[in-house]
Specification:
By secondary structure, the chain is α/β, with parallel strands linked by helices. It is built from eleven helices and seven strands. Helix content is about 50%, strand content about 10%. α1 packs across α2. The longest helix is centred in the middle third of the chain and has 29 residues.
Length: about 300
Amino acid sequence: MTFIPCMLASRSFLLHVCQQQLCQHSAQLIKEADISRYYTTLLTNMAACSRLISRLTVVTGGGSGIGRAVCQRFATEGASVVVADRNEESANQTLELLSRDHKGQEHMALGVDVSSKDSVEKLVTNIQRRYFQPPSVCVNAAGITKDEFLLKMEEDDFDKVIEINLKGTFLVTQAVSKALVSAGAAKGSIITVGSIVGKVGNIGQVNYSSSKSGVEGLTRTAAKELSKFGIRCNCVLPGFIATPMTDKVPDKVIDKLTAIIPMGRMGEPAEVADACAFLASDDSRYITGISIEVAGGLFIG
Ligand SMILES: *[C@@H]1O[C@H](CO)[C@@H](O)[C@H](O)[C@H]1NC(C)=O
Ligand SMILES: *[C@@H]1O[C@H](CO)[C@@H](O)[C@H](O)[C@H]1NC(C)=O
């Protein structure tokens, strides 16, 4: 474990904090490995501190999983966060979890259906009404899965996934970029969430993998078109991350998958959020149109 020089708190104190926090989020048995990982996250957050101060951020799918972790991480770094989710109750719950350590941080929660142009435009309008500016950072974390073999997949199930994962990312990216361009904003960072499955495919996920490959293509094109407006667009490709989405995966499958991950474990939503924070911040100011795999080495190459 690397220690950061500015850390004054003892490891045992931090472990205690971690344990408490983990208990709040999960009634499950807590493993030493979980605590250790959470502890690393806590240290990382404390060390990284404040790269996003005064950055207004909207996170779709912010009510759970990776989206929620992104909201928490960004709030820790000083951003004002708009938690947007189709499930308004879960967005409200994320809002409750957000830190307000920095002056001037003002978070809010809003309901949105990313597959509806109306709803997305309403979201951006509401944000501008409240903050008098468009969000300069946007994380498209809204997404769903609906698995079935190609030979059995219903047309509706294909369409639904594409509508939310791909068209939703398009609508949100377009609405936020339009608002940034018309406001004459100096810079923006749009982050999309693809999937390692978009690259390598996965049995039973013809709809999901198509939508996620599409997100990568969309991101590269958006990067080319929006660079002249100071807007960067990048994609994160999560591997096998423990979220409500993967809760539905049977234990047997989890064991099999974990066995082929070089790092030997599933990822945490916070580890994807770390990559998003980098892409949102000026630390990545010369980076656009790329995809970062956050997958523990799964499907390297
Ligand atoms: C979310 O919070 C807002 C503001 O407090 C409230 O008006 C709304 O009813 C809440 N929504 C749900 C579904 O709990
Ligand atoms: C993908 O298709 C399957 C099978 O038709 C379906 O059950 C699933 O809901 C679809 N995925 C999504 C995200 O809609």
